[in-house]
Amino acid sequence: MLIPFILAVVLIVLYVRAVSATGPVITSAGIVLAAVFCVLGVLPLIVQLGVIVGLGIPLDTFIVRTVVIPALFTVIGPRIWWPAKVDDTAARN
Fold first, then answer.
1. How far is CA 6 from the centre of its chain?
2. Which of 60, 62, 57 is nearest to 24 (CA)?
3. CA dist., res. 86 & res. 28, Å (int)
4. Structure confidence at residue 88 (pLDDT)
5. Which residues are CB-contacts of 31 (< 8 A; sequence separation ≥ 6)?
6. Gyration radius of the chain over CA positions
7. How do residues 54-76 score in pLDDT, each as one tens digit?
8. Which of the residues in the chain have pLDDT under 70?
9. Do 51 and 38 contact (CB within 8 A), yes or no?
10. What CA–CA distance (Å, rounded) separates 39 from 37?
């Protein structure tokens, strides 16, 4: 009964470490990309494209890359690397 709790705590700690290590790079790149595409929103020919992409990139940066992808890695486990061979004994430990 205690093992799933310990596993959950370890996964949370690993998630926090991973996001803290890669978070600033992903966030700054997302902000720069969003700003570039929002500037495209003032051009008369591609207003809709600039606004849609300018709003989509922060959504991708702050929701998908920081919440959804780590959750998928947790749920799927080592099978996320499907084409490559994964050492199952290391994954079980």
1. 24
2. 62
3. 32
4. 60
5. 58, 61
6. 18
7. 788 888 888 887 788 878 888 88
8. 1-2, 15, 19, 85-93
9. yes
10. 5
What local confidence, expressed as pLDDT, does residue 13 receive? 76
> What are φ and ψ of residue 43, in 5° steps?
-75, 135
Residues 6+ apart with CB under 8 A from 46: 40
Place of tokens 């099978």: 79
Residue 17: name the closest of 79, 77, 70 by CA.
Answer: 70
- Cα distances from 73 to residues 18, 19, 51, 61, 67, in angstroms, run 12, 13, 31, 17, 10
Q: Where along the chain do its domains lie? A: 31-61
What residue type is 35 in one-letter code? A
Nearest to 70 by CA among 18, 27, 25: 18
